[in-house]
Amino acid sequence: MMGRSGTTGTAIPDTMPPGTTSGAPQVLLAHHLKQLKLPTVLREYDKVARECARDGVDHPRYLLRLIELELIDRERRTVERRIRAARFPAVKSFDTFDFAAIPGLNKMLVLELSRCEYILRRENIIALGNSGTGKTHVALALGLAACQKGFTVAFTTAAALVSQLLEARDERRLLKLQRDLASVKL
Q1: Model-level pTM greater than 0.85?
Q2: Spans of biased composition, class Polar residues (predicted)?
């Protein structure tokens, strides 16, 4: 059987079967893209196709653009999930931190820590200082940086952690809590 491409094999009909509308390929494409879990491709394929046609871009580059958009969007959603899972009381970054207000804080060291290499080296960080010296903001910003770099984070206070540990011990699920905490990178 000859298909559109002139090769033998499964034929692609030149006309739609009776009773189908011209929208059927779009419906099938949407269905398949949902099954394949490609929401960005589903949302963007038509717009990108028009842009590529206008710019004279070939099919491989069209597909490349679509897949790159999908990958970028997946990474964004993954980071958002990590941030939600971290349970930060507020999302803070170093962009909003006023280093000038705390002259005793070593800005270069803090920014170096935001690269998260200490996590790979399994090093601890202790933030000491009086109230209002930016310890929580720095901790939240380091946690956000870790989420953005692919690390899992769990934010808690010392009091909340002690409470969780005591409750887990009383309910005989201390080992599970310890495993859960150990699985988090920061």
Answers
A1: no
A2: 1-10
